[in-house]
Design a protein that fits this description.
It contains ten helices and six strands. It is of the alpha/beta class. It has two domains: 140 residues, Rossmann fold; 63 residues, DNA polymerase, domain 1 (Orthogonal Bundle), CATH 1.10.150.450. A six-stranded parallel beta sheet has the order 3-2-1-4-5-6, with helices on both faces. It starts with 15 loop residues before the first strand and ends in a 6-residue tail after the last helix. 35% of the residues are buried.
Length: 231
């Protein structure tokens, strides 16, 4: 006797679809990721006049303690966020092209779709446009909207809910970083860990499984297979 077929993940309760940007809606190969980290390190070096190793330590400490390197630089060192973003973000280096699989998967989702990112909103818009999905998103909650107090800080999620106008229990968050899923799950959001081995997917938290409802290494495939509400 064959085992019963497993039901696809049930997302029929979801009306608000919230996506991280970097390493989630688009991914980087090892060389691209290394180049991005190096641009951040060079910025920190120049700002403080430090050798690379010391700048790297600051970069990673701020990322660990505050959720992004920029958050620490704004909080402690008076860095201009616009200059920072213009320096470290390089859209051309990503070599992004329209992603038909992702577009088809996103387009089937009922309700509102939004980006929730610790990065820059202008950059997010350009990324979405390069992927060919910009018209599918109605809201970008970015570093500026968050007051440069990023995920996984609790206030970032308060801002997300206020700007998005949705109830957490009717929303899903997709993110490569498990620690960004922890506050979302605690508030009642359905959480999906994009675990493709890149970005911050290697980070771990205590009792990790308690904060993850679903896991995938292929976002488009996952979105194409879930159960969703129908009119």
């Amino acid at each position: 006797m064959s085992a019963p077929a497993q039901q696809p993940p049930d997302f029929r309760h979801v009306e608000a679809w919230v996506f991280d940007l970097d390493h989630t809606l688009y991914t980087l190969d090892a060389a691209q990721h290394g180049a991005m980290e190096e641009r951040i390190c060079v910025f920190v070096q120049r700002h403080f006049g430090l050798p690379r190793e010391a700048a790297w330590d600051i970069q990673k400490r701020y990322l660990r303690d505050y959720g992004s390197t920029l958050a620490g630089l704004v909080r402690h060192d008076g860095v201009d966020p616009d200059i920072y973003h213009d320096t470290v973000n390089d859209l051309a280096a990503l070599s992004l092209t329209p992603n038909a699989r992702l577009r088809t998967a996103l387009a089937r989702l009922p309700g509102q779709r939004m980006v929730f990112t610790n990065n820059c909103g202008r950059y997010a818009k350009n990324v979405l446009k390069a992927l060919g999905v910009d018209d599918l998103f109605g809201l970008i909650v970015d570093a500026k909207a968050l007051g440069y107090v990023p995920k996984p800080q609790e206030t970032a999620y308060d801002t997300l809910f206020a700007l998005g106008g949705f109830k957490p229990e009717n929303a899903a968050l997709f993110d490569d970083s498990v620690r960004n899923l922890v506050p979302a799950r605690a508030r009642g959001m359905t959480t999906v860990w994009f675990n493709n081995g890149g970005g911050q997917s290697h980070w771990r938290v205590e009792d990790q499984g308690l904060h993850i409802d679903h896991e995938t290494d292929d976002l488009a495939r996952f979105l194409s297979g879930i159960r969703i509400a129908t009119p």
